[in-house]
Design goal:
7% of the residues lie in helices and 33% in strands. It has 150 residues and is mostly beta strands.
């Protein structure tokens, strides 16, 4: 006899299926629209100043080696795969065992006319991945200057 969990996100009940369909905003690209398994994409902040951009990605509990950052033409790709497998001791038995596997991919378009892609740097600290993307010199705004009236 098989046990079936009818509240499982993988097997939505008919009313829940309709609730999800009608209550989700088609244009809401929040992370909860990507997965029925309650996994999420890391939240991202993008800060711009005159010198460049900083992409801040919340990824607590990870290590800097867990990230893979690539620049292919004008596409910045940030990805990670993390798999945790616990060894089972000889005398252990389990009736339910869930694998721990996390992965994500985030991509951003970086126009070569705006950013200096040869000087991009990344740093992971206190659960935040920061990617510093400098602007090209010709794109930076000049500081305003006062002009004297004679």
């Amino acid at each position: 006899m098989a046990l079936v969990n009818f509240n499982s996100p993988m097997m939505p009940t008919l009313p829940r299926l309709f609730d999800d369909f009608f209550t989700r905003d088609l244009f809401d690209w929040n992370t909860n629209n990507f997965s029925f398994t309650n996994t999420t994409l890391p939240a991202v902040n993008i800060v711009e100043d005159n010198d460049g951009f900083v992409v801040e990605m919340a990824a607590p509990g990870m290590k800097k080696d867990d990230f893979k950052i690539e620049l292919d033409n004008e596409i910045l790709k940030i990805s990670s795969e993390k798999k945790e497998e616990k060894e089972l001791k000889e005398d252990e038995r389990y009736t339910r065992r869930e694998f721990s596997y996390q992965s994500f991919v985030r991509t951003f378009h970086l126009p070569k006319s705006v950013v200096d892609d040869s000087k991009i740097k990344a740093k992971y600290e206190d659960g935040i991945l920061r990617i510093m993307i400098p602007k090209r010199e010709e794109v930076k705004k000049l500081a305003p200057r006062k002009i004297a009236v004679s």
